[in-house]
Write a structure and sequence with these properties.
mainly alpha; globular; 63% helix; Glycosyltransferase; 202 residues; 2 domains; lyase
């Protein structure tokens, strides 16, 4: 909260100045106490009613996970249904989506030159970061693995798996990793996440 500065006045003596400063400090302390009481109530309300935000990007990533029974069916149809219900007309494309569409010979509402340029920029970025032999660059490549698909080393990506089975606590990165590696912990994390979202909606 912004604390307004009191109007300045002429201080006739050192004693008046000290008193004024003490009064100013007391007012600041009172304001701080009042401000602190408000957030406590809000935090208490947040814990009473947990709300999980919905990410279109993560939904799209998880929606691409195929069913164990059939590669033609989604493992998480609720994510696919959510996308269909919430799609917008001004369609945008990502590198991974464009590459998948290209491999499947799908017609996209973009010129071939636009798609090729986008994929070329992605490849250049991958080459640039790959030359930097550092822990940070490896983490970056692992985190963005869902858009690198064929370019990245998926065994290297698995080194960043967390105890909860996720990749960086990112549903989309975890989904992409599962699609490539069929890792059971990745699938377990995604199932638990979807269950949490379902419970939050009830």
């Amino acid at each position: 909260m912004f604390l307004s500065r009191p109007k300045t006045r002429m201080i006739s003596s050192r004693h008046d100045g000290d008193a004024f400063r003490r009064l100013h400090v007391v007012r600041i302390a009172e304001n701080a106490i009042n401000c602190a009481q408000g957030p406590k109530e809000k935090i208490r309300e947040m814990f009473n009613k947990i709300e999980l935000s919905v990410s279109s990007y993560d939904n799209a990533g998880v929606a691409m996970v195929p069913s164990p029974d059939s590669s033609q069916q989604p493992c998480f149809p609720e994510c696919l249904n959510w996308l269909l219900e919430n799609q917008v007309h001004d369609v945008t494309a990502s590198c991974s989506a464009s590459e998948y569409a290209k491999d499947l010979y799908l017609n996209l509402p973009f010129s071939p030159k636009f798609v090729e340029t986008m994929l070329h920029k992605r490849d250049l970025e991958f080459e640039r970061v790959s030359k930097i032999n550092s822990k940070g660059s490896k983490a970056y490549l692992a985190y963005t693995s869902e858009r690198l698909t064929k370019l990245c080393d998926w065994k290297e990506v698995m080194k960043w798996q967390r105890k909860n089975g996720s990749m960086f606590n990112s549903p989309s990165t975890t989904a992409a990793t599962f699609i490539q590696n069929q890792d059971a912990k990745c699938l377990e994390y995604l199932c638990l996440l979807l269950k949490m979202f379902a419970n939050a909606g009830n």
